[in-house]
Amino acid sequence: MHSSETQSAERPTERKRASEMLLDLCRAWPAERISIGDLMTALGDRGYGLLMLALALPNLIPAPIPGLSGVLGTPIIILCVMMLLGYPQPVLPRVVRERTIPRAALEAVLTRAKPWLVRLEARVRPGTLPLPHRGVEIAASLLLGINAALLALPIPFGNPAPALAIVVMSVALVEADRRLFLVSIVILLLAIVIDVAIVLAIFGLGARLLGVI
């Protein structure tokens, strides 16, 4: 009896996963809309990664939220600038903090995203990436910033790639997983290539159409 009690006492408390934390927060939220500032306050000391995850996910999972990429892409850009400058915690201007999104729509997005987020989180190795670390933060913020800018732009079919890249890097930062961080660097670079290729294809098509006219 004493042995089992000792083992139970020594067992470390499991840290709540990002997907679980975000969905619980959304379900418990009392108002019909959630502001970005409210999200920042509620997520507390989990830092940049969890907030970027919350802002990027709705762009990855189709949701009935008009103008979503512009509303949520811009704050991610600002967060990347804050990270690049070395701010220990996210800081956003009031005009951005006051932007709101429907709670029900965000909950629907998180519910749809949770199964594959859980599969991703099940493969992470928390604590293998040294954080805080300026080299990691600079590399992440630069690539995340470029992808967030692409996300905020109205590029046809251009949202999924940068949104996915931001989500994967966000999980890597939240869990401090070295292997996932390296994988996310590759995904961020690929997302940039994909969106640039889409833009060049659109310009090329436009030039051909103008030539025909």
Can you tag this structure with a few keywords?
disordered N terminus; globular; mainly alpha; 10 helices; 213 residues; single chain; two-stranded antiparallel sheet
Name the helicity range: over 70%
Strand content: under 5%
The main sheet comes to:
2 strands, antiparallel
- The best one-word shape is globular
Description of the structure:
The protein has helices at 2-10, 18-28, 36-43, 47-60, 68-85, 94-97, 103-122, 134-152, 160-175, 178-212, and strands spanning 33-35, 100-102. With 213 residues, it is mainly alpha-helical. α2 (18-28) runs antiparallel to α7, α3 (36-43) packs across α4 (47-60) and α4 (47-60) runs antiparallel to α9. The protein is globular, with a radius of gyration of 19 Å. 37% of the residues are buried.
Topology:
Blueprint: H1 2-10, H2 18-28, E1 33-35, H3 36-43, H4 47-60, H5 68-85, H6 94-97, E2 100-102, H7 103-122, H8 134-152, H9 160-175, H10 178-212
Antiparallel strand pairs: 1-2
